Amino acid sequence: MRDFYEELEESYRAESGPAAAPADDVIRPWGETQIVGKPLPRVDAYERVSGAAQYTADIVLPDMIYAAILRCPHAHAMVKSIDTGAAEKMPGVVAVLTGKSPGADLPWYGGRTAQSKLFDPHCRYEGEEVAAVAAQTPYQAWDALRAIKVEYEKLPFVLDDSALKPDTTRLHESGNSTGDPRVTKRGDVEKGFAEADVVLEETFTTGVQIHVPMEAHGSVVKWDGDKLTIWDSTQGVYNAVLFPAAQTLNLPLNKVRVVCKYFGGGFGAKLELGKYTVIAALISRKTARPVKITLTREETLLCVGNRPGARMTLKAGVKKDGTLTALQLTSVATPGAYASGTGVGFQVAELYRCPNVLITESGFYINAGRARAFRAPGFPPGNWPLEQMMDMLAEKVGMDPVDIRLKNFTDFSQMRNMPYTSTGLKECLTEGAKKFGWKEARAAKKGGGHTRRGVGVAAGMWQGGNGSPPYTAEIRMFMDGGVTIKTGAMDIGTGTKTCACMVAAEELGLPLDSVRIENADTAVTPYAPSSGGSMTLPGLIPAVRKGAWLVKRQIFGWASESLGIATEDLELKGNAVVSRSNPEKKKTVEELMRAHGVLDVIGIGNRDPNPADKATMPFAAHFAEVEVNTRTGEIKVLRLLGANESGRVINLHTFNNQVFGGMTMALGFGLTEKRVLDRQTGKMCNANLHDYKVPTALDVPLDHEVLPIDPKDTECNIVGCKGSGEPAHVPTASAIANAIYDAIGVRPTDGPIEPRTILELLGRKKRG
Amino acid sequence: MCEDPEDKRSDSHPGMSRRGFLTSVGAGATVAVSLKEIPEAPAQEIEASGQTATISLRINGSSRKLMVEPRWSLLYVLREVLGLTGTKIGCDRGECGACTVLIDGRPRYACMTLAIEAEGHEITTLEGLMDGEKLGPVQQAFAEEDAFQCGFCTPGQIMAVEGLLRRNPKPAMEEIRQGLSGNLCRCAAYRHIFNAAAKAAELRGKGGAL
Questions:
Q1: Which terminal Cβ of chain A has fewer Cβ within 10 Å, N or C?
Q2: β-sheet bridge partners, residue A328
Q3: Domains of chain B: total
């Protein structure tokens, strides 16, 4: 399967088209808004709190059977034989599937260096698919899995960078390297280091973080003759499911219908077609019955993605006045057993003005679950060395951490070699510092005894968040003035649907409850890319506005003609178009439509290209206050503030919610979340939610604030919004690390920072 | 940490509270560590399925008579047999709280409760908080405060708050946090969930309770 991360990179190269042709009737920025920007309840709140929202696993169809997958229990093994005889005779069992079943010998994972199959006898990590069954109940399916006899030849396994040694076990024929290192170069770092007054070098590591959406991956699949319907828990009905599933099963696109109205989170883990979907489709075709498959929590922790841990060495040069002269980053990271993005360096070359940069990124395969794109792929890990290094440099040259970041501010995208349409990074830092009480908190005493307090800041950004074509929104006005939006875009929980309705309501002058939205059904709704890259809002919302504007232009045009009033003087009030200057003059929408022989008006809003000569990215500065217990190593996050610039805020509720959520997930990334592999067996020790620790209600600080920064961007798109889900997750962990340094005077370079880490650091400091 | 008085009496109720379950797992782990070698897993005897028992469950005020396998969880029966899919499956092993229902008014994990254990007890699911098509006060508060993102853990969070407010109508913030500590929200809408719990207490106080 293609990696979302790579597709994202490609989209940047492809997105810049010619600017939209100027026309007389152009869409202008809104003045004061009536709906957009307000904290409004979601349009699907009722469905989500009443239980009416149907998630994939909630679908129960007549005659449906349940599938389950047998997975390799070893880190590295070759399947020698599979005996399904006993399983086939188990009560309730309807079908058993292996790689030898008709139609099941399918290629998988593609890529230059790592080929595989749907059921590959060469199992390269604990959890690879070996066989599948379907039965009347999931209990009977699990029984049958235990009755399948598999003979494995256990192979030596490799879990770390020893994978690159010449004599070690090989995962793939091409070896264990993911390919040539990726090199990004600007200027001359040696010259930059020579010009510097201070040069520092440090090595940092981050752990393997796992997505853990609350809804496990799963599908319900049903055939009607040669037509296939897939309900899937996915971040993209088109890119993630329809296109690859139709290709894999050799079906025309219009014979496959993919539906996902509601799904329980993804964070990147649901950007790809699942093997389980194809397995369910094969079983369903074989048995002529609908099939439901829901992965167990353990399977999701083992098999459907993670954020690669990285080892990163950063060398930085700075002048006495705080000006950066050179940054050199060397990173190695592993995507697990198969190819996936492992880069971390973009931010190092982009966030601050720096003439000399050299980044070398490489990767290697190990016998563990494969990585997938994870909320701002590469950015929280890349932020970790960069933002800790900025503090290290600031200390050396005697500057405040906020000041050194402001000193190196840039409004020019060095990676794209063009200016930004806007950047609010400066305001994120200055306004954030003001609201946080940075100066006072920084100057305050660190506390006596064994608890020490400290504050930290970190800046960050995300390379996506701009949105780009193609996105299509169909806006249909009924004869009573009500509107339905149709789009193939997903609502991952970010409030896409609500924001779309708010924008249509704003453009048409309607109350929010006059606008309805239907989404994510490939048989019905027009194309939209997957929900990823913080692209959905800035991709979709301008298309919605354009579609609504086209509807308005049509209806107002008819009213203008019929009433003899200029369109500027018209507004939509309820079910009628009314003159602003003389409210007596009006026509109902129905009258206008009937006069033109229609009973609805449809506006097809296509997303216009982004400006060709400017780059659009969102920015953030996060602040943290922590308390560290120097006896136990316990870390308490007392206070967090996120100043985030994502262009115009559409819904203040959903925006704040995103930022709270992204920062909290980053708190897990920084302090508690990591995959633990057993060195003796190669198996994952913590494939459950007791031992893989995502933040709970007791881990989040009550004092947590969000500060939206709006740069009033009129160039990025016709709404002025950027994405927020990913930038909200980028700098928080680094801010916490910097706060810990401020508290105890030792720097936690290895993440996640556990109590043990703190005690080891303090012990080392004591011993000198 | 506040003591949850409920834990002390968890033996008298079917199902397990989060911390009750933790304790029992912890004990098991101690035994495993004391072993010198990790033994091969013994060949498992598979019990014949299809053996059913007839039970009667009180769900949301009405009685349902049905045939279940003794091993079926209450969660499975609610969702796949009765179609009450408001109760979500998140981990199926007592770790996330997405399947929280009320049993005799107290929050319990439906995945850790066998259907046969639930016989003779009053079960309330998310659907049971509705008044026809009208939302209950806790649901209303969650909608107004934007107390969710993807909405998948939401039914469990709502049931946890409902259970909390039934025994403590005016909880302090720390009690709200404790009351929600067995319900994970990966989108981390916690801040808004806390606000919704406080608002729900207010709405119920104003006679919004069913």
A1: C
A2: A315, A358
A3: 2
How large is the ipTM? 0.95
The pLDDT-based confidence of A349 (bands split at 50, 70, 90) is: very high
In the structure, what pLDDT confidence band is assigned to residue B8 with cuts at 50, 70 and 90? very low
Q: Residue A137 and residue B46: Cβ atoms within 8 Å?
A: no
Task: Tell me the residues of chain A between 293 and 312 that have a Cβ less than 8 Å away from chain B.
Answer: 294, 296-297
A4-32+467-606: which CATH number, 3.40.1000.10, 3.50.50.60, 3.90.1170.10, 3.30.365.10? 3.30.365.10
Cβ atoms within 10 Å of A765's Cβ, excluding its own:
11
Nearest Cα neighbor of A674 from A750, A613, A726, A598 is: A750
In 3D space, the residue among A284, A415, A344, A384 whose CA is nearest the CA of residue A736 turns out to be: A384
Chain A and chain B share a number of CB contacts under 8 A equal to: 194
Distance CA A767, CA A727 (A): 39
**A42–B143: do the CB atoms touch at under 8 Å?**
yes
Structural domain spans, chain A: 4-32+467-606, 56-155+214-265+270-303, 310-465+613-767
Class of domain A310-465+613-767: alpha beta
| Percent of the residues in chain A that have a pLDDT greater than 70, as a whole number | 96
Contacts of B194 in chain A (CB under 8 A): 697, 702
Give A149's strand partners. A83
Instruction: Supply the range of the domain harboring residue B203.
Output: 130-210
Residue B129 tokens read as 């908080």
Does some domain include residue B23? no
Q: Is the pLDDT of residue B88 over 70?
A: yes
CATH number, position B175: 1.10.150.120
Least-confidence region, from A119-123, A567-571, A613-617: A567-571
| Domain A56-155+214-265+270-303 sits in CATH 3.90.1280.20 | no
What are the DSSP E strand ranges found in A37-76?
Answer: 65-71
Cβ-nearest to A265 among B71, B79, B187: B187
Q: Check residue B6 and give its pLDDT.
A: 44
Per the model's pLDDT, the better-predicted residue between A618 and B14 turns out to be A618
